[in-house]
# Entry
Amino acid sequence: MTEVVNIPASIPREQSQVVEQHSSLHRQRVIWGWVFLAPWIIGFFAFILIPMVASLAFTFTNFQLNHPEDIAYIGLRNYEKLLKDPNVRTSLRTTLIFMVFALPMSIIIPIALAMLLNAKSLLGKAIFRTLFYMPFIVPTVSAVGIWEGYLNTQSGWLNRLLRELGLYAPDWLNSTTWIYPALLLIGIWGTGNAMLITLAGLQGVPTELYEAARVDGAGIWSQFRHITLPMISPVIFYNLILTTIGLFRYFDIPYMLKGGTGNPGNTTLFYNIYLYKNAFTFQDMGYGATLAWLLFVLAMIVTVVLFVTARWWVYYAGGETS
Amino acid sequence: MLKMFHKDSSFRLNYLDRNIRKLTLSGLFSLFVAAILFVYLLPFGYMVTTAFKNRQQITRNKILPMTQLTYTYEGEPMPGYRVKSGDTLPILVIPTEEGERELALVMASNGEDPNIFLDPISLNIIEWEGDVSSLPQANQIVLYRYSGENDPELGLVKSRDYPVYLLETEAGIGQWALIRSSEHIFIDTENPKAGVIKWDGDLESLEPVPAIARYKYTGQTDTDLGLEQLASYDVYQAPEGDAQWALVRRGDPEVGTSTVILAFDPTTQAVLEVFEWDGDVDSLQPVYAPQTFRYRGRDDGGIGLTRNTDYPLYEVPINGETRVLALVNVGSPNQFIEPNEDEIIVVEWDGDINELTPLYQQAQYRQVDIVDRANGLKKNEYYPMYVVPTEDGEHIWALVRQGTQTGESIFLNTQNQEIVETIRVAVDVSELTPVLEPAVYNHFSSPVPDWSLEPGDKLPLYQSPYDPEKHWALVAGYTPASGKDSVFLDPDNPEEGVFTYSEGYYASLKTIDKFDPQVDNFKLAWKQINFPRLLFNTAMIAFIGMFGTLVSCTLVAYGFARFPIPGKNILFLILIATIVLPRQVTLVPTYAFFSRIGWTNTWLPLIVPHFFANAYNVFLLRQFIQTIPREMDEAAMIDGAGPLKILTAIIVPQAWPALVAAGLFHIVFAWNDYFEPLIYTLGAPEIQPISVGIQQYNFVYDERPEMIQATSIMALVLPVMLFFLAQRYFMRGVVITGVDK
# Structure
């Protein structure tokens, strides 16, 4: 879960109206500017850039956290191991397959919920908004606990309901097939934030556009297709990027659900769980860093591809593309 | 306007009508959304109901926390003793007229009633009056497990255990295993390869070798003393006192080792001390392992009798007389048992079964469906079957009642299983031909009861299947597979005794329940995982981090929004790009760094980085600050206010909806964050936040779903309250910045 609220793709241009005539005053303000930016710049070096470089350096070593003094340069051995490791392929495939199902869901459901909450005829909007957001505040550990009970094969409410209806009641959490739908269901509870952002985007669509469309005789679907979707496309794009990154680092839910074992039958051995095992359980930081960099490169490639495709489908009302 | 409405009432009606229609539509739509919300939040229902259950209520498969009401029995004890399958009973040697018998003690006498024993072979209950404490306990005997090749001629079977006797041979006294008692064949346990011998002496005079009791050591391995975890050692009586000694190692003067003794308490099995002893081991009195009997239900494994099974009866000629016996095993010889004896008496007969005369008895018809008082029809009754000649041929009917006042007998039509119909026919029953079927012995009855009732026993209450107003108290419930009928007591008339219910599984009866939420779960969770501590840790990590992120992000956002920094747009893009960076890339070096400077197992790695701004909140605040008119800054600047003064006096008071939003996002993030607290506080449970600490119920305590949910509800209270209190401002902060300007 990420603490995210906004739409970075639409950065308003600096619209300074103060004309800096006095050059010493200008210099002074530049200095003040750097002072204010200092926390982020220090943080960027300390917690992002230097660790990134260090992490890259670790990939060429056998760095063990419990024996840091034994660190030695081992060339490309970690990369050789990476290529040969069958668990890397298994866990990557698991992560990517899960992503194929989870991505559309985590885009469509927030839009659908936000559309419902944005409807003019909905009474008690504030209450609905809060209650739909509530599962997002539930600590992930609790959420997993709740779903574990809710999806229990025998006593779980969902299976009782399915049995009442005479339907097949699957063994959600222990079947190699049903574990993925179960994870998707649990994932729906994390969409509160995306829903809120989408709702904000929907509220930003000027009402005049709909009025004009109605005058032109556009139906509900046509309005949605030709006004709502393009207008909120930056929000969709933003959610898409964040969800993609979030799915690349999917860890909490499968880890808590199955204690990092990868059960049933390696189906929950997501890439990050394997990374965590190597770096923190086996304390092999060198190989852990190599795994992390592979993840970074893959996430970067996918992000860049998404950014490139954004040219064709993301519409910026201000005419800006970034 | 009002006037106009008065004039044109149809317009007003139309207007009202449209409003009503609009309102109805809104209501219906809102109901639809509420239905979706209901499904979306349904798992919360599971959370709340589970948090109020106890372990038993969880297994009960009811949605609400319901407890089955019980009836407390106050009457006389019935039947006074019970033997459950799986009970282990000590075996005592009892002197009887026919010699000594080894019987399993079920219940020692209380002074009035006789002692109750169980015969381990026939499973019959035997009463014996006398002092149990004076009886010697039967010892386990040493068994020899043969590991050589099978030899059917001598009766040697690989992996079978044979009893061991002390036997005097030419080579002296040795331990020999008895292979076949009929031919006195023994094998030397020391040297089984040497073959078997035939011993000529009297088997009765031999005593089997008693097995020495063993002590199983469960403590830590100690190689110096020769102690091994889970190893078993021979037990001896201590020379003085009640303690028993386990011989860990026998001293060997040649190697230079000493004897090691582990003294333990025989009742608690607790280790008293481990010491080196210089006495003579052979002078110690060994403790022999007492023989016990493990009751495993009423089946007799000896000859393969299965409970509740029919065995056909035959007339068998034995020693010149003809006896009626039940056939159990066919073979040579065939094995029969005496059907009319309480004890199981096996009779063997070598001959051709097909030459024997099977015994016939009159067939009985069992009716299970209908109670018909007028015709004398009862449920579960057996009725004898006859061939009844009528005008339209012969019928096989069961006789219900013979010769009523009208001279007619009442029969049941047994051909039609679907409809139970009674037929009245005037016939002389004594003239009818009875329907015969092979007679059987049903091996069912065994006097070992597996239930008992004592005053103070709490019996679960069920609804009577016949009268919904009536309650039944369950004394003993059996599964349908056991073939036994469940035993009940009428709580209104306990003095009438117990009765059985044979028409179904007791668990399918309706239970009498009361709503019984377990509020104590919350109290227990509060104490058990030290919830106040976890809450304090979480709140400290969240609020200090929130303070840091708000201060740093406001400064940075202000810098980006208002100051002419060269390359500002590039810097801002870099800032935004950090969102895309997977945490794992920087995690390893950051962890290594924090571990190096000794910050692991403190809060610092979870708090300090938040004092250096993050992309999400900087972006949120910058967007908001940009909506604040610059004219206000400029006016203040003209009044001589510096950048810091403008920030605190103008920007912050204006930007507080965004600050509330950012702060709340951080709280929610910190409350839920699992990964970083997990790796940074793994070794220090006392500083863990709730998200990690709650896991104790998964890993430390054996899966306690009710405790996890109770803790989760307590953990939810604070963030949900904060969200409700702040949500108005929070929404404004998000909505405004979310608008695509």
Observations:
- The longest strand of chain B covers residues 309-318.
